[in-house]
Design brief:
The complex is a heterodimer.
Chain A lengths: L33 H15 L7 E5 L3 H4 L9 E4 L5 H9 L6 E7 H5 L3 H10 L3 E7 L2 E2 L5 E2 L8 E2 L3 E2 L7 H7 L4 E6 L3 H12 L4 E7 L15 H7 E3 L1 E6 L14 E5 L5 E6 L9 H14 L2 E8 L6 H4 L12 H4 L5 H8 L2
Parallel strand pairs in A: 1-2, 1-3, 3-4, 4-10, 9-10, 11-15
Antiparallel strand pairs in A: 5-6, 7-8, 9-15, 12-14, 13-14
Chain B lengths: L18 E2 L1 E9 L4 H14 L4 E6 L8 E9 L10 E6 L5 H7 E10 L12 E5 L1 H6 L5 H7 L2 H11 L3 H11 L4 H21 L6 E2 L10 E4 H11 L4 E4 L6 H14 L11 E4 L3 H13 L4 E5 L1 H17 L3 E9 L5 E5 L4 H5 L9 E3 L4 H18 L2 E7 H5 L1 E4 L17 H6 L31 E3 L13 H21 L4 E3 L6 E5 L4 H13 L4 E5 L2 E2 L3 H9 L3 E5 L5 H9 L7 E5 L8 H15 L7
Parallel strand pairs in B: 1-8, 2-5, 5-6, 6-7, 10-11, 10-12, 12-13, 13-16, 15-16, 20-21, 20-23, 23-24
Antiparallel strand pairs in B: 2-4, 3-4, 9-17, 13-14, 15-22, 19-21
Classes of the chains: A alpha/beta, B alpha/beta.
Chain lengths: 347, 619
């Protein structure tokens, strides 16, 4: 740790890094864009979790959301891939070094339209990846077309009224066998941060469907992806706090007041009950509350579903302890004497 | 079997009126009837008898029922390309019976299942009816297996009538059933029974005979897809993602089959590799590109339609400079085309694959042995050049059994290319730039995810970027980067495999080909030489073209470019490259879905030569 006495102004985390070590290039997104707020929470979460920036991989597809990985964790490796195809890129990359953690940022177009296929398949493979969908119901970079998550009846300037049913990303994630599903709101930064921390501790796919308003094309008060609508309709399922491994839960709660979820790395996600009963390990309840949210026009946020028991994709493959990309030639080229045997296997 | 000269020194005895070890056998069966086992058994038995042999499966896109053919060529001189002439025809399928009968060369032999009651319309072929149903009925095999082993009847009858050793048939069955006694005995008993029946009931009236030779010693039989997979395994493949598609499926399947025995960490039994069956080709290439970026020897294998889906990621890998190997086992397009037929028609597509200015490095294996070699070499090239390497095989090499020289252990240590790890960055004081051309060869240095040095990371992207991999739309930066990529492509010429060139004294013409057509071209050369047309030969093995290709084109007045496609795609690329000399490049392109024949090449060249010369000069 850096000596606080001699550097009184510079705050560092447990591995001696400043917040600035987690920042990226200046954002080129619009002022007030929900995505910038999420980027800030990614920076804060990684700083607070004492993650070495070099041990985290960033991924994205195409769109406003997918530009954002350039704006956080400038010391991390990143790959900005193709539209809708971030999941496959992340899948292959994670085989390189299984000791790394990874975080992908996508949007509602990138995930729920062109990327629906890869979104579904990365969930069933349970790739260890924090998969954030910055969901604003609209295409920004191409100037304001409806996305697949836009609600029926939404009117957008120049594009009329949306006649189609929306895709519910959190619902698709629960149905798609994701092992960690959360919904949040860019206007609720504390919850976003705690969810990102929990997601980074999850060994498997962690889908975060975060309503992230587009201030330029879809922020009228009646739009379900606007700041105003979110603030008026958000109902948090619980007050969520992330407690790192080896740390004590300091706040004292009444018996039955919280649900504690123990993560794979020994950390704990403490869910303090608010108005309603929700056990996130119950899959049918997870579906029921999403149904309820749709029926009652609520923005229900929090940890909707979690299953910490499923093996991750990388666990299934029984890989060497040494990361594959550190293996030497003699570990990946069979010895010379085997070639005779191989030829003998032919006719 | 690649030389234009007969390779055999020991001449088989030539009995008066016999035609020994020089004919084609074609078997017509319904698809899915298990005929692959019997056909491979004949092929392998011939190989074990020391007779040069090739076998080609001509099959429909169908699981069961449609007519399918298998054509075997035996040739004592080692010319093993497919022929259109069929001296021996076996008809097991009523649906193709009439067609099969019409195929037999006059004087040839026609074996047929005697329960097919269709008119025999020819009197210039020798007929051998076979009591297939009767012989199968007499075996004590469970009813559900009877249909599958019925084909063993023709194996026995043909073996008896042509003189194929039954003990060699037994060895072939032993191999096929991996030593499992029950199926070996069950099949062999029927073969033997059928052979005995033929000896007792049929009189040899055709001239075709097999006699043992010693011309296959030192060869193995293998298909190109298995060879490619094994080559990749020796090349250290660490990640393969794929999606099922004919004719590439068996390549990925061979990876799955052989990796566990060859590539587990000895101390722990843990895997030094991963093979993922993706949801589609879009994901297969995405995974492979991710793995290549993350420092793994990464590959995918596919065919035309899958390749079309991969275009966008290949373009990204070209521009972001990610090493990845893509095997394209070519089939006939456009679109779904003829999915179970062979072609060489993806060449120009692959060369330019990617929107914007893109040029790709292509390897063109011409044999199973070369599939093995390019299987490992492709990774060295991909990591050296930091770009996609496209390896173009085809259905014929990929799925058929070829006599080939044994696979050779990689002759060179791995080339992992320009990679900076922690200690390298320490020496550089952490100062480096991902896309800076330090060495002047267009190839820049890269770091790999997992490198913990604080300035190791960079952001890979398909968007415009500066030397530090930062987003940039700067005009000068864009152009400088693109020109460097072109320089890198020039550098590739020094690294890719050189062509195979065979010259003769005072050649009249040059002939250029690539891939699976070599055996047909070599045979055509032999016949052309006898007709007074002497041809030098060059088999191109890679794009970009090397200096040897340039020299060959320069040194010949006339260069015929032989290939299996409609548009003469190699001819197009050569014409682009050597535009000042393109008038001497003559395209001989042909695609009907079947492997090219020597006769087609020979006649096409003769016709062109006759048109250009006084008639008397062409003998």
């Amino acid at each position: 740790m850096v000596d606080q006495a001699t550097h009184p102004k510079v705050q560092v985390n447990l591995i001696g890094l400043e917040k600035a070590d987690y920042r990226g290039q200046p954002s080129t997104l619009c002022q007030g864009c929900g995505h910038n707020s999420i980027s800030s929470q990614i920076i804060a979460a990684c700083y607070e979790l004492n993650i070495h920036p070099e041990s985290l991989l960033k991924f994205s597809g195409i769109g406003c959301s997918s530009k954002s990985p350039a704006y956080f964790l400038g010391r991390s490796f990143g790959f900005n891939g193709l539209h809708g195809r971030m999941p496959s890129l992340a899948t292959g990359s994670m085989f390189g070094d299984h000791t790394l953690v990874s975080l992908g940022v996508s949007g509602d177009g990138d995930t729920a339209s062109i990327g629906m296929g890869q979104f579904k398949h990365v969930m069933r493979r349970n790739l260890p990846l924090v998969y954030i969908i910055e969901n604003n119901g609209v295409y920004g970079l191409t100037k304001g077309q409806f996305s697949a998550t836009a609600e029926t009846g939404l009117t957008l300037k120049g594009y009329g009224t949306n006649p189609y049913m929306p895709v519910d990303i959190a619902w698709e994630a629960v149905v798609g066998n994701a092992t960690f599903v959360a919904r949040s709101f860019a206007g609720d930064p504390k919850q976003v941060k705690e969810l990102i921390k929990a997601a980074l501790s999850h060994r498997g796919i962690a889908v975060l469907d975060i309503i992230s308003p587009c201030v330029t094309f879809n922020n009228t008060d009646t739009s379900m992806h606007s700041y105003a609508w979110g603030k008026d309709h958000e109902v948090a399922l619980h007050e969520l706090s992330y407690v790192p491994p080896m740390e004590e839960i300091l706040v004292e709660y009444e018996e039955g007041e919280t649900i504690d979820v123990t993560m794979h790395d020994g950390s704990t996600v403490v869910l303090k009950k608010l108005g309603r009963e929700h056990n996130p390990t119950d899959r049918s309840r997870a579906m029921a509350i999403l149904e309820e949210a749709n029926a009652k026009n609520l923005l229900l946020t929090g940890l909707i579903y979690i299953d910490t028991d499923q093996p991750s994709l990388l666990d299934i493959y029984n890989l060497t302890e040494t990361p594959l990309n550190r293996l030497k030639e003699n570990q990946i080229r069979p010895p010379r004497e085997t070639i005779e045997k191989v030829n003998a296997m032919m006719f | 079997m690649t030389t234009a000269q007969p390779i055999i020194e020991i001449e088989p005895s030539t009995r008066l009126g016999s035609i020994v070890n020089d004919f084609s056998i074609t078997v017509g069966t319904p698809n899915g009837s298990g005929s692959q086992t019997s056909n491979l058994t004949i092929l392998r038995a011939l190989f074990k008898m020391g007779v040069p042999v090739s076998g080609k499966n001509l099959f429909p896109s169908n699981i069961q029922g449609l007519p399918t053919w298998y054509t075997i060529r035996v040739n004592r001189d080692g010319f093993l390309a497919r022929r259109d002439e069929h001296e021996i025809v076996v008809a097991m399928n009523p649906d193709s019976f009439t067609q099969d009968l019409s195929k037999v060369q006059p004087g040839g032999a026609f074996f047929y299942s005697d329960d097919i009651r269709l008119p025999i319309t020819r009197d210039d072929v020798v007929l051998y009816p076979m009591p297939v149903k009767q012989l199968v009925k007499e075996t004590d095999v469970s009813p559900n297996l009877k249909n599958y082993i019925a084909n063993m009847v023709y194996v026995g009858v043909v073996a008896e009538m042509l003189g194929i050793d039954l003990d060699k048939i037994y060895q072939a069955l032993e191999f096929h059933f991996k030593g499992k006694q029950k199926p070996i005995e069950m099949n062999f008993n029927l073969v033997q029974k059928a052979a005995n029946w033929a000896a007792d009931h049929l009189e040899k009236r055709d001239p075709y005979r097999i006699e043992a030779m010693d011309a296959t010693r030192g060869y193995i039989m293998a298909d190109g897809n298995t060879a490619a997979a094994l080559g990749a395994i020796y090349g250290g493949v660490q990640f393969a993602a794929w999606y099922p598609i004919t004719p590439a499926t068996s390549l990925a399947e061979a990876l799955t089959e052989y990796l566990p025995t060859l590539r587990k960490e000895p101390e722990t039994g843990k895997n030094t590799y991963a093979v993922v069956q993706a949801e589609d080709e879009l994901a297969a290439i995405g995974m492979a590109v991710g793995a290549g970026w993350a420092g793994l020897r990464a590959m995918t294998s596919t065919s035309g339609p899958g390749l079309s889906l991969m275009v966008e990621y290949v373009g990204l890998a070209y521009y972001a400079e990610v090493p990845v190997v893509i095997w394209d086992v070519q089939r006939v397009g456009p679109s779904t085309g003829l999915p179970t037929r062979t072609s060489q028609a993806d060449l120009t597509m692959v060369y330019f694959m990617g929107h914007g200015d893109t040029e790709n490095v292509i390897l063109l294996p011409g044999s199973a042995k070369e599939c093995f070699e390019f299987g490992w070499r492709a990774f060295d090239l991909a990591e050296r050049l930091q770009m996609p390497i496209l390896v173009l095989s085809d259905l014929d090499i990929g799925m058929n059994q070829w006599m080939t020289q044994p696979f050779e252990y990689p002759a060179e240590p791995m080339d992992r290319g320009k990679v900076l790890w922690e200690k390298d960055l320490e020496q550089l004081d952490g100062k480096w730039a991902r896309y800076k051309d330090v060495d002047g060869d267009g190839i820049t240095y890269r770091t790999i995810p997992g490198n913990r040095y604080p300035s190791s990371a960079w952001f890979a992207r398909g968007t415009g970027h500066d030397e530090f991999a930062r987003y940039s739309e700067g005009a000068a930066e864009y152009e400088r980067n693109m020109l460097r990529l072109r320089k890198k492509f020039e550098t590739a010429r020094e690294y890719v495999p050189k062509p195979v060139i065979e010259t003769v004294e005072a050649a009249d013409i040059g002939v250029v080909a690539f891939g699976s057509t070599e055996s047909a071209v070599q045979e055509a050369r032999y016949h052309l030489a006898q007709a007074g047309i002497k041809a030098d030969f060059m088999r191109i093995r890679a794009i970009p073209f090397t200096q040897e290709v340039t020299d060959f084109v320069r040194d010949h007045e006339k260069v015929y470019v032989v290939e299996m496609n409609r548009d003469g795609q190699l001819h197009q690329l050569l014409s682009l490259e050597y535009s000042a000399q393109c008038v001497k490049l003559i395209s001989l392109a042909h695609l009907d879905g079947l492997p090219l024949t020597a006769r087609w090449i020979e006649e096409a060249i003769k016709a062109k030569e006759a048109a250009n010369k006084p008639a008397k000069e062409v003998r």
